[in-house]
Design goal:
alpha+beta, four-stranded antiparallel beta sheet, Alpha-Beta Plaits, 3 helices
């Protein structure tokens, strides 16, 4: 089974920027300890600090789905509810050689 690459773009509402950033940062350590997590890297846009992008690599889709059901991810989702302006998630499979 192919590895899954995820690019997730999260745009925080300006008034909640600090809270959203903190919650996203709190995901990093426990997620990196999950089975099947290869990469889990958070970025913040240099021109618009409300824009965050996660670059993730997972062993397979099942590992990603387990992540989305983890206690820390569910707690994060509850914490930032109403604080997010926009979110886009791309689940991809690498196609180059």
């Amino acid at each position: 089974m192919s590895k899954i690459v995820v690019v997730a773009k999260i745009v925080a509402k300006k008034e909640f920027l600090s809270s959203v950033k903190s919650s996203l940062q709190n995901l990093i350590v426990p997620t990196r300890l999950e089975d099947g997590c290869i990469d889990y890297i958070l970025h913040q846009d240099n021109e618009d600090p409300a824009v965050f992008v996660f670059y993730e690599t997972w062993e397979n889709l099942a590992c990603l789905e387990n992540h989305l059901q983890s206690d820390h991810y569910i707690a994060h989702a509850k914490t930032v509810k109403g604080m997010i302006e926009d979110k886009e998630v791309f689940k991809m499979t690498r196609v180059d050689i």
